[in-house]
Amino acid sequence: MAKLTKLDDIVSLCKRRGFIFQSSEVYGGLASCYDYGPLGVELKNNVKKAWWKAAVQMRDDIVGLDSSILMHPLIWKASGHADKFADLVAECKKCNTRTRVDHLVDNAEEHTEHVPIETAMADAQDLSKKVCPSCGKIGQFTEPMPFKLMFETQMGANVDDAMTLYLRPETAQGIFVNFKNVLDTTRVKIPFGIAQIGKSFRNEVTTKAFIFRTREFEQAEIEFFCEPGTDEQWYEHWKEVRFKWYTDLGIKKENLRFRDHDPDELAHYAKACVDVEYKFPFGSGDWQELEGIANRTDYDLRQHQRGIRTLNDWFETKGDLTKITLKEEAENFEKGPLSYFDEQNKKRYIPYVIEPSAGIDRSTLAFLVDAYDEEEVKGDTRNLLRFHHALAPIKAAIFPLVKKDGMPEIARKIYDELKGCFNCFYDQKGAVGRRYRRQDEAGTPFCITVDGQTLDDNTVTVRDRDSMEQIRISTDNLKSHLREKLDM
Ligand code: GAP
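A: This is the predicted complex of the input protein with glycyl-adenosine-5'-phosphate.
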């Protein structure tokens, strides 16, 4: 089981080197929640920076947003999440463990993301041969029931005006409800997109494989608004752009693929959806969703127009979402507050939306897995992370060969000069070979060593992480050399 070993190796490297820790570890841990340590937070920030650069900075047709996690509860009624965002689960009568019905199989096989309730219902006809993954009993399940995935919380101190809110299960809705604000305050014209990175929360029934599926996670989403009829062409555009983003950042092409959703697998809002899948080293099928690209049509903006019309009922029912039925579409619906007026062609419509929705934690895991390598060097195993330079947590480590003859002072000076340009690390502890290996494990592209020759001719060695080759560079040219190599 080499592949499983590989994920174990990565998990252990992540803990050993301070990339990722179990949340609340000193209290025994909190299942499916993780903390990013000193190297992990740099890596994750770099993933977010690379996404933002590609999604917002480099494009003229996308603007950014950072909406709140807590939002008006009616938003979740309108979006469909309050009623439909649930997994179908069955409880084992022997051990009381609840399992997603679509995850119940005859062997340990794992499954995809959320399957719509209707599809899961159809598949759930016969549980008599299914195995409980917890105690191993066969066919001992209760009737399947929906399990809601949104976390609830209370807002407000006074009994009269306190209300139940939800932690957002996707960042997308914060974008839809700001569509008009962005239109009114910027110069954007359709086609354009709004991009956002932020935390989302889902009370997942089954969590798995380290940071792959957790209950708190970060998403990076673009809602790209376009004229109905042009949606299919934008869908193709985004497929291409998003696939390339991963390969440009070093993911090997052979580990990435597209998987189209079957019609019965589509989320309640989608006309079409394709997953970018990565060959993760776990599960029976290996290929797992990294990102979803969906054609959400005009579903969300339409639904929010209905939601807005329903506001009065919401107050009358004291915020009880179960009592609320969204107001039917009025005449001239296309002229509603979330419609768009195309000045040039003098027409008004509700835009269609193409949504590339990536998981930051999941991409971070994919970048870790893809960069991880082991090689034999002089009878020893060298573990390394061959990160793309843009993602590497530390760009350069600076060492004095020995702690004497003025070498630490020179190395410190170099470190102080470079750290204003990019993330650097100073280390003078232990044999230099061991220091190199530690940086290989951290994925640091360059190690700079001050040695005896530096004292004579002001040159240092620059060691390349991937080839382990060393070249000598004058300290005067070091900064420009590294900037060029790192493209920073
Ligand atoms: N707005 C659309 C949406 O949320 P999704 O397929 O449910 O679609 C998009 O989620 C991405 O978010 C997934 O492809 C995955 O990368 C990430 N994601 C979803 N649930 C997750 C979880 N429980 N843990 C980690 N990442 C998750």
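The chain has three domains: 47-84+150-367, 86-148, 394-486. Residues 113, 170, 172, 202, 204, 213-214, 217, 219, 221, 289-292, 355, 357-359, 361-362 surround glycyl-adenosine-5'-phosphate (CB under 6 Å).
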